[in-house]
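Bumping my old thread because nobody answered last time. Still need a sequence for this structure:
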């Protein structure tokens, strides 16, 4: 009953996550703005990206096509 997604869905999620992360880094990432919007928000975005990427990688059955 608890079927994991296939590799194509996992790759699509990783590509979407990467695009969102790049956009957020351009807007709020490292070196943008003052205090919180400088290095602080860049670190927070990096930690969130790593957590989401690990959840996608661990929740995907990489040997199943669909």
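Sorry it took so long. Here it is:
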């Amino acid at each position: 009953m608890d079927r994991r997604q296939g590799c194509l869905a996992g790759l699509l999620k990783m590509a979407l996550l990467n695009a969102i992360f790049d956009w957020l880094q351009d807007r709020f990432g490292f070196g943008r703005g003052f205090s919180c919007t400088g290095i602080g928000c860049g670190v927070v975005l990096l930690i969130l990206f790593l957590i989401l990427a690990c959840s996608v990688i661990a929740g995907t059955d990489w040997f199943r096509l669909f």
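The chain is about 65% helix and 0% strand. Let me know if any region looks off to you.
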